[in-house]
Design a protein that fits this description.
single chain; 220 residues; alpha/beta; Rossmann fold; three-stranded antiparallel beta sheet; 9 helices; 8 strands; binds BIS(adenosine)-5'-pentaphosphate; binds magnesium ion; binds zinc ion
């Protein structure tokens, strides 16, 4: 079976969003970031967005029922038929079980979980210097990944901004939440035999080379 039903797992700042852009461009699958979907709901001040903002600003997880609902709806879209790249989902064991059950109903399963690894002080430096495009969500960094023109997205000319949850105190809490609630998913997917561990401390293009090796050719 040649489906790319992929998960990008890893702590905040490991480079999930950065690598997701490259993966979806080459493999032709949709990028499903629950963080991006939630931030869009916050921006549009929907009921869900107003509820989610409290958790996001504190660096806590939004309740499972909310994010599971988002992903179930998203997987109904026809563009997911050939595969998908989950970024930031699942983040808890119940979310992983819900995804497995939903895919099983469709006769599908997760084909690879890419785990991006990096140590905590590097993650803090990456997140506190990050800037994001308001239009296409592409991530940049004030030191490590400068846009060509200051404050402007290389991809779409959108305006760059700093995420509300990228302050040092919130970043530290997000890292603790990751350790407690999300890291156990590595063992969950190890049991399914689908994990590829990737060194996320390398330059972005090096990290992407390792990801391509783990995934194999796009046309396979
Ligand atoms: P989410 O948006 O998913 O954030 P996150 O997991 O905290 O991860 P980040 O987006 O911060 O990091 P990233 O790995 O994408 O790194 P990036 O590529 O940008 O979630 C936010 C919040 O939403 C959560 O706290 C929660 O409240 C809620 N939420 C979302 N999903 C949920 C779920 N499933 N359940 C419950 N709640 C949920 O890179 C970071 C920086 O480093 C950038 O500046 C980048 O330019 C730079 N960089 C990246 N790679 C490199 C490199 N190789 N070398 C140098 N610099 C690099
Ligand atoms: Mg991200
Ligand atoms: Zn952009």
């Amino acid at each position: 079976m040649s489906q790319f039903n992929l998960i990008l797992l890893g702590p905040p700042g490991a480079g999930k969003g950065t690598q997701a852009g490259r993966i979806v461009a080459e493999y032709g699958i949709p990028h499903i970031s629950t963080g991006d979907i939630l931030r869009s709901a916050v921006k549009n001040q929907t009921q869900m967005g107003l509820e989610a903002k409290k958790y996001m600003d504190a660096g806590e997880l939004v309740p499972d029922s909310v994010v599971i609902g988002i992903v179930k709806d998203r997987l109904q879209e026809p563009d997911t038929a050939k595969g998908f790249l989950m970024d930031g989902f699942p983040r808890t064991i119940p979310q992983a079980q819900a995804l497995d059950a939903g895919l099983d109903d469709l006769g599908r399963a997760v084909t690879k979980t890419l785990v991006l690894l990096a140590d905590e002080e590097l993650l803090v430096a990456r997140l506190t210097g990050r800037r994001i495009c308001r239009s296409c969500q592409a991530p940049f960094h004030v030191l490590f990944n400068l846009p060509k023109a200051e404050g402007v997205c290389d991809v779409c000319d959108g305006e760059l901004y700093q995420r509300d949850d990228d302050t040092e105190a919130t970043v530290r809490n997000r890292l603790e939440v990751y350790r407690n609630q999300t890291e156990p998913l590595i063992g969950y997917y190890d049991e399914a035999g689908v994990v590829a561990r990737i060194d996320g401390t390398q330059a972005p293009e090096k990290t992407y080379e390792d990801i391509r090796m783990a995934l194999g050719p796009a046309g396979a």
